[in-house]
Give the backbone structure.
Amino acid sequence: MARWLQQCPHCGYAAPDIGRAHPAAAETVAAAPFRALIADTSHPPLARRFLAWAHVLEETGALHAAAEATLHAAWVADDMNRPDLATAWRRDAVALWRAGPALDAEQTVRVIDALRRTEGWQDAATTAEALAASAPEEAVAQVVALERRLIGEQDSGRHTLASALPPPARRPHVAHQKIGRSRGEGFWARLRRMLRGD
């Protein structure tokens, strides 16, 4: 994750490629809220980098991308054993997703998982029920079924994406790889990234 974003050592601007800044980035980076964010030493430095990028994205109207970057900050907090920050940033990510355009099924799965991880049981259950009722594709339905089970058990822990897959009759790893290959980068690969299959 430390290589996902670059950050300017002078102004603090963070992005996947700081050589190609968003046109509105200069104004955002110069503003007091951004300056306060990057100066907040109570947050881990890598998390601040993701939050800096999320702030720029939010200010430029890319709310779903800002939600993703905020979720990445939560992952950093997870890794640093800071559940307080991880919870706050997952809630912020959910708010950003919901403030943007209509969510697709994959984004809704991210919301459900973030709500479950923050113990927002009722909201997570309602969102999962609505997605399940929309007759999503089978891969989404399997992940939603796992999320619903975990919500019912009030399990807010990390879980691998593999735990949502039904075990094939033979050679499970080969079968799972075939699913990923048949769809190219596809749904499973994107879900692995978004739910951080660790």
About this structure: The mean pLDDT is 86. Strands lie at 6-7, 14-15.
